Amino acid sequence: MLWKVSKMLFSGFLALSSISITTLYLYQNRLVYPSWAQGARNHVDTPDSRGIPYERLTLITQDQIRLEAWDIRNENSTSTLLILCPNAGNIGYFIPIIDIFYRQFGMSVFIYSYRGYGNSEGSPGEQGLKLDADCVMSHLSTDPFHAKRKLVLYGRSLGGANALYIASKFRNLCDGVILENTFLSIRKVIPYIFPLLKRFTVLCHEIWNSESLMGSCSPETPFLFLSGLKDEIVPPFHMRKLYETCPSANKKIFEFPLGSHNDTIIQDGYWDIVREFLVEKGFI
């Protein structure tokens, strides 16, 4: 009798696991790209909320998706900072960060909404986001204002993966890269967040293999790595491994003992380190 009960429970567990894995596979885009969370698609704050002058642009990708972008120009700048956002929220969340780079550091800033985020059309996915990045780089490299300036990439989490895609594909257009709490690949993050799914990572079709792309980046491009050692989403050793495999002869890593995935940016010394990097490399 006990054996029959155990068999039934085990069979039920397998069925439930199968359903969970199938659900995870079919709906992983909604998990990886939660653009829907907290009403982030319903309202997007704009830079004028802080008195920052900007131009709202609509960029059209190769597959005809319309993207919202903000062009914040500082006529006295020598560099443009391209912000690559993480996987949650919208570009309005970055207005305080834009303020720092624009007002305090004197840079021009360009930021855009990935497809399926904020006011941009479409649905997010790895291949689509890469087409978005291609579109943005085409714009920046041909725009008379930005083409005359050095280009610095600033990516957090998923934005870091996007930054590495850009830095590896458009290595001659990128003059500097700042990465914060970025992963080796999404497949390698899964066991850290969902230990029970470590045997099913092959089912993850949203890969973002940053570890592989890092090797294709230019050895002449300066890199700054900012890592929170209490990151509960991306294992901190991912950032250390990216730093170690980075081919640049001009790279630095700073680790923040109390920094978690989303609050590394407010840790003591964070912005002093960023400013020092930008000054040292001649970006400001």
TrEMBL record:
Pfam families: Hydrolase_4. InterPro entries: AB_hydrolase_fold, Hydrolase_4. GO terms for molecular function: palmitoyl-(protein) hydrolase activity. Residues 104-200 form the Serine aminopeptidase S33 domain. Coiled coil: none annotated. GO terms for cellular component: membrane. This is Serine aminopeptidase S33 domain-containing protein. It comes from Saccharomyces uvarum (Yeast). The lineage of its organism: Eukaryota, Fungi, Dikarya, Ascomycota, Saccharomycotina.
